[in-house]
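Below is a filled-in request sheet from our internal design queue. Each sheet records the structural input a requester submitted and the sequence that came back. We keep these sheets so that new team members can see what a complete request looks like end to end.

REQUESTER: design group, bay 2
PRIORITY: normal
MODE: inverse folding
CHAIN LENGTH: 431
BACKBONE (tokenized):
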């Protein structure tokens, strides 16, 4: 009975203690809610200031800001804030509204502005890396200033041609007097390339490219006279190819929803062994295959990249001009004078699409019109036929790390003059 009485006396005190504890919890929750509301309001105000171009990055005083800030990323994916003349770069955290993947083939690019903000006049491409990594080589944006990209690649090209020629006369349909000649040519080319790209400024990069070429041709000729005569020629050649240098400049930053336009200038040397440099027999048949064109060339180009979520549209226009060369050489009974290889007009169009942050693919088409080649033979100028080279393009890319990516590009010829297929496997490495 004493225990029951004591419990009855203590019950009101316990109830009061529980009520006090509950009230304290409610007060703490209300304080947390109020503090969180203040944080949200402060963040909204900061984002509004950044959208207006008046707020500095986190950790920087307002007195440090004298111009609108641009947003970029470094190789590790951190946000970088740079002033108008790009002379000051400071690391910080990118806002949630800003995408964090912004490179092409693992090359850093600029980031788009927050939703609803005025366009940020950035010197680099405002798009995501995963959308762009698989686009064909040659349509590229700039390497970040002070960064070096080493591009290792292997290439395989397969070409085949079949031709049937009748040399003679046809008396009546089905009755022919003369020689029927059939030619079949299979050509395989393997190229190993090392390319280095370096960002000079936020709008300009330079590139140097060297390659090692290995070629093999098998030509089978069948002549039908009184009996079939078959002749097979196997030719091969390997050595250093033509060394190339290039410079690219980004004209605009894609402001106001416009495509990003990049101008390029490529110069090709004649370091490889050309077709007029290799020895030939008394019949003019080469003893081995050339590893270069034998001519210098210059190629100005314009390329564009237009982000259009969830894809990126790309394209290019180029003109490759070969420089004529005086061969001044006699092969058999033919005196070879000045040779002017035909210039080439090229264009391409396509799109890139990202399936996830690591894997992307691209589809496109490219076409080259190659003008006739002029050759001075025994003081007479002869011209070859023009060529139409068109190919469908398909690319894939997988991002291994922030510094490494593995890219594969396929080309399938759709015109008679185009190679049957071309495959390029590339490994870009950022330093």
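RETURNED SEQUENCE:
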């Amino acid at each position: 009975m004493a225990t029951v009485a004591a419990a009855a006396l203590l019950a009101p005190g316990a109830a009061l203690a529980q009520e006090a504890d509950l009230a304290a919890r409610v007060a703490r929750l209300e304080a947390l809610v109020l503090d969180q509301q203040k944080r949200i309001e402060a963040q909204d105000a900061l984002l509004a200031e950044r959208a207006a171009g008046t707020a500095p990055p986190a950790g920087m005083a307002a007195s440090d800001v004298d111009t609108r800030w641009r947003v970029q990323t470094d190789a590790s994916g951190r946000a970088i804030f740079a002033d108008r003349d790009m002379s000051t770069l400071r690391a910080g955290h990118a806002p949630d509204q800003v995408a964090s993947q912004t490179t092409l083939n693992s090359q850093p690019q600029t980031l788009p502005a927050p939703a609803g903000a005025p366009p940020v006049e950035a010197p680099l491409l405002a798009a995501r890396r995963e959308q762009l990594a698989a686009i064909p080589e040659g349509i590229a944006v700039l390497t970040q200033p002070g960064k070096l990209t080493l591009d290792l690649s292997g290439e395989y090209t397969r070409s085949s041609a079949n031709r049937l020629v009748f040399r003679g006369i046809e008396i009546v349909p089905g009755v022919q007097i003369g020689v029927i000649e059939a030619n079949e040519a299979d050509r395989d080319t393997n190229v190993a390339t090392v390319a280095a790209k370096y960002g000079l400024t936020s709008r300009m990069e330079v590139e140097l490219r060297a390659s090692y070429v290995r070629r093999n041709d098998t030509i089978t000729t069948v002549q039908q006279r009184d009996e079939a005569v078959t002749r097979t020629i196997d030719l091969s050649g390997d050595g250093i190819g033509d060394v190339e240098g290039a410079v690219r400049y980004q004209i605009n930053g894609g402001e106001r929803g416009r495509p990003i336009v990049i101008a390029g200038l490529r110069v090709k040397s004649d370091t490889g062994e050309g077709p007029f440099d290799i020895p030939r027999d008394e019949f003019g048949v080469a003893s081995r295959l050339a590893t270069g064109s034998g001519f210098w060339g210059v190629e100005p180009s314009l390329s564009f990249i237009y982000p259009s979520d969830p894809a990126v549209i790309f394209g290019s226009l180029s003109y490759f001009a070969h420089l004529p060369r005086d061969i001044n050489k006699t092969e058999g009974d033919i005196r070879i004078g000045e040779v002017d290889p035909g210039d080439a007009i090229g264009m391409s169009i396509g799109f890139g699409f990202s399936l996830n942050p690591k894997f992307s693919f691209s589809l496109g088409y490219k076409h080259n019109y190659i003008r006739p080649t002029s050759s001075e033979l025994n003081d007479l100028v002869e011209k070859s036929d023009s060529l139409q080279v068109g190919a469908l393009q398909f690319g894939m890319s997988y991002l291994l790390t922030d510094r490494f990516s593995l890219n594969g590009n396929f080309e399938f010829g759709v015109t008679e003059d185009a190679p049957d297929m071309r495959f390029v496997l590339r490994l870009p490495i950022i330093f």
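SHEET NOTES:
- The radius of gyration is 33 Å.
- Confidence is low (pLDDT under 50) at residues 1-7, 59-128.
FILED BY: M.R.
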